[in-house]
């Protein structure tokens, strides 16, 4: 018996309405007008999972779903923030008193950015002593959905704090010029946000998410080499060749802070140590390496890392050669499929909800499908002919209904714009 199921689509955000909303909420919360609204996109990683912290390459693109921050300058050194996603939890801290370990929960991401700006930002990013701000946050990136709401929060906060501080500093850095002009400054801001996430929020992630949110460009994927964080814009226009990326938010919850990310990272570091290489990206012969490790778990982790790096290189080469059509499309689909299987079997970061979504999408005609992001829930992507997207979504929804699971949400991966001021 086949079950009928309807696919639940997340509405595409209307940016003007979102800006008006976050302004109004600011006024409701604090009783005066904000100075501006900044926002940063969630990202979708096409390929190259769990290798950013190992110096591998990855290939993110910005989504149209963003985190919006309305902000106003205050001149008393105090940072106050509230988020519509965390109702009733307004937080306040004196910026120069912020220390790792002192704060808890979501506010560590926000206060962490201010702290990291002062720790390592350099003269043009450090916040003057008297600088303080009121922030009101609203996100259209699903929180904990594998699409990087954490980086969207950090990056929108970083841009807001930087620009809000202009009236109290001598020179105003131009992070908000077009991203192409300000890429070097944005690369430094991304590093600040990475430090905030690692040291304040305690999530030991690499730099993929923050770099994507700040340095991606609309209509392009970002070929990011995590050895030195150098990035190259690769044209990525699926609609021109009749394709779409279907994003499936399983709505199964994961938390990267629960130790899984850290334990994978530790496995990789241990493998590199045993193999006598700086990082697993330096492994040349996989068979030799897995034999030398003499440990099934470490061999499997290494197999994922080395093969994922090769897949990502191959995918970037495909995009450089031309549009995803014919053989190129078939190869791209196979690379996505292999990535998922490797994350499931060798890296063990998938889960039943992700596997079912991926299998159902493939069976319904997707060219390829894989989990994306940190796994343990979160989202999967499927490369699908545009005319088949509804059918594939229904097939995934039906597979969930058959198992009695909460329906997944489907998200349109139209190109998004990079982080910036939006008003
Ligand atoms: P992902 O980045 O994949 O969405 P993470 O677990 O990395 O998932 O980050 C989610 C965490 O980031 C949340 O638990 C919360 O602490 C914080 N966060 C993200 N967006 C918001 C928001 N709009 N308001 C408050 N906190 C947020
Ligand atoms: Mg995150």
How would you describe this structure to a colleague?
The protein has helices spanning 15-30, 107-120, 149-164, 183-200, 208-215, 260-275, 286-293, 296-321, 326-345, 352-363, 389-402, and strands spanning 8-9, 36-45, 57-58, 60-74, 78-83, 91-94, 132-139, 220-225, 230-235, 243-249, 368-372, 379-385, 409-412, 420-421. It has 423 residues and is α+β, with helices and mostly antiparallel strands. A hairpin with a 6-residue loop joins β11 and β12. The longest helix is centred in the C-terminal third of the chain and has 26 residues, at 296-321. Bound molecules: adenosine-5'-diphosphate and magnesium ion (MG). Residues 148, 150-151, 209 line the site of magnesium ion.
